[in-house]
Amino acid sequence: MTMDHDPDSSAPSSSLGDGVPPRLQRRVDDLLQRHGVHSFAPADATRVARVVLDALVADTAVGRPAALDLLAVDALVTRAIEVLAEDPAALEAEIARSIRDLKGGEQT
């Protein structure tokens, strides 16, 4: 996922790839911007995914409207791993760190 700034917009534009529904793409962009991410990095993506997931888990009234946020969490983590796959030496350590972060800092 690369982050480019559209001069006609105050929001960063990220790309999850071809075939991603525009509504999901917009939600991911919104979440990244809302959490201060202006250029994509796997650690930022997993951090934002964790914050969103924690909020969803804490909301006992969560229902169907949360589906888009759950899809966004999945998209952020998946794209982070895809980016890391370009550097095999860093991939294993970053996946372990990401899993710990998503589990709340527990050691695996």
Give a quick rundown of the structure.
With 108 residues, this protein is mainly alpha-helical. The protein has 4 helices and 2 strands.
| Percentage of residues in DSSP E strands | 5-15%
Q: How many strand segments? A: 2
User: What is the total domain count?
Assistant: 1
The outline comes out as globular
Q: State the distance separating the first and last CA atoms.
A: 27 Å
Largest sheet: 2 strands, antiparallel
User: What strand line-up does the widest sheet have?
Assistant: 1-2
Low-pLDDT stretches: 1-13
Output the radius of gyration.
14 Å
Helix percent reads 55-70%
SS-based class: mainly alpha
**Alpha plus pi helix count:** 4
N-to-C series of helices and strands: EEHHHH
Q: Summarize model confidence as the mean pLDDT.
A: 80
Q: Features of this protein?
A:
4 helices; single chain; 2 strands; 108 residues; disordered N terminus; mainly alpha; two-stranded antiparallel ribbon; globular
Write a structural description.
The structure is a single chain. With 108 residues, the protein is mostly helical. The chain is built from four helices and two strands; from the N terminus they run E-E-H-H-H-H. It has helices at 22-34, 42-58, 67-84, 88-102; strands spanning 3-5, 12-14. Helix 1 crosses helix 3 (67-84), helix 2 runs antiparallel to helix 3 (67-84) and helix 2 (42-58) packs parallel to helix 4. The longest helix is centred in the last third of the chain and has 18 residues, at 67-84. The radius of gyration is 14 Å and the shape is globular. Mean pLDDT is 80; it is low at 1-13.
